[in-house]
Amino acid sequence: xxxxxxxxxxxxxSPAALTIDRRGFLKVGATLGAGFLLPGLTGCSPGDxxxxxxxxxxxxxxPASVRSRDGxxxxxxxxxxxxVTVGQYTFMTRAYTGLKVLRGEASFxxxxxxxxxxxxxxxxxxxxxxxxxxxxGLPDDNSAVDPPDCAMGGGSGGGxxxxxxxxxxxxxxxxxxxxxxxxxxxxxxxxxxxxxGPGESYDFVFDIPRDIAMPDGSKANHPAGTYWYHPxxxxxxxIQVAGGMVGALIIRDEERDDLDRLFSPxxxxxxxxxxxxxxxxxxxxxxxxxxxKTRLATYGEMGHSGPLPPGVEDFFHVNGQIDPVLRMRPxxxxxxxxxxxxxxxxxxxxxxxxPDDQADTATxxxxxxxxxxxxxxxxxxxxxMLDRDALRAKSATYYQVATDGITYGAPLKMPLxxxxxxxxxxxxxxxxxxxxxxxxxGTYQMVALGYLDFVCWAPQVLATVVVSGKPDTSLQxxxxxxxPALYPSFDDMSKPGNAxxxxxQVEFAVNVDADGAHFLIDGRTFCMSRxxxxxxxxxxxxxxxxxxxxxxxxxxxxxxxxxxNSFLVTSxxxxxxxxxxxxxxxxxxxxxTNADGTLKFLSRxxxxxxxxxxHCHILEHEDEGMMQIVEVxxxxxxxxxxxxxxxxx
Length: 649
Description:
The chain is built from 5 helices and 41 strands. It is mainly β. The N and C termini lie close together (about 10 Å). InterPro entries: Cu-oxidase-like_N, Cu-oxidase_C, Cu-oxidase_fam, Cu_oxidase_CS, Cu_oxidase_Cu_BS, Cupredoxin, TAT_signal.
């Protein structure tokens, strides 16, 4: 197999014809309203625990959306460099800035469109065809988005390439991955081996399955749910996703999905409100020693495996905003679609009520200086300390109803009463959770409780929920839901499609030597010419993922992601999870005892042959080589490769 650089159907670099200054996106020089304090940000670097910096609060913006009409959505999306402002930071980034709708419907009607971060939401239904021309309007490499990494000694820090580039050194070449979709991985579909260089374009076609055959003779639709799209250019994935090249991808199916019948962005009679929360993660260098300008972090800073360098701030944003305001009525039930499109830090979510005497009587927002946490990412003279359990116990009740686009059979009360591991409730980079919220009158903060790993991520307020006005009890939390037919349970192993046909073990490890850190799967880094996992079409397999502990690399969680087919987690460090949940992205746990951690799952491989990938969704780990090629085929699979050889391509 060779890296595929296909002829471009066209080289039109001009922005799409429809460009709107659209409600819901931060624009150049945009500012938010007043009154929010951003806690000290992540990284445990010097100064992180100083006085909070004032940042503004605004009503939640909703990204513009496009949807199919008569079974087709035909759009052109343009990528360019652009300048954005988030809180007090203004910097250059890459973004989906142009959108032209050739066939379909748009939330902005006939208005013009300009996008920043996140990109437009794409809404489809089972049976739809998405035709998407991706136009790469980026300049050649060494652009303003990737300045020399002066703060890290000329770009050599962390073992990365010079000039602030990552391992690929082609940061303005790109492609497109539909994360979580069960679609054909081959061209012109979800082909992550494609390269679209600056000035080139490519016509993608994605067919969303409807009435596809299942092993027991029944038919299934693609699951309705919450997915997303992002670049998957090996060597440059992290730098592009971290800059905000992401967007929601929603599959709707009111015919078969209970949640879609009950909730809508524009609810009708008997329906509840649906809100989209695209959580992104920015790593910003505020003390660039080259020119003093604020900029996105380079790979050298992003890949730092310890306290972050001075001036580097790592923080979450929601729909391109810092701490937006969501509004509800007492007793009202809302559906929150939360997408974790960050590149590195796991999300540990809770809803904390603000004491009445700490809420401003005029605005209902928390008073300036109010701190919901009472702890920080660094302890004076000692290791980082996060008392997450105490705060999680204070969280208002909410209900999780889907993970990674797959609806449960019943709502899951959160926080979990008896989890066997944080793997069950922490949302990894790339993961999605649909939740139902219903609160009493008051002010609540949706928070990320922070996370300890090889880098310490500080706690942060994600959004503020103001619950006020006349009570609304027209809708209650449903007690029973219908899981998607594409992912039937394994409760009865004698049913067609449930008998295990193969087992395999895959080992993730970080080794450190004089040459730096090495991110390995089965002892090897990614190779474009090597098939690591060969799987028979229609196989049913049990996988064991091993998170190797090493004396040099220590231990760290790895968010495992595999394309095309989701999996059912059956064991976490040898224990059965408290809830059987299907996922396409899941943390591989550490053992906590200087031993290997393990995760087991079951998965089916129907419908699609071809090559795709599995990888760590800490995206700089992926770019450094923590990825493998999977091939599903009907023919007999060859023996697995041995050694770390890689043929040049």
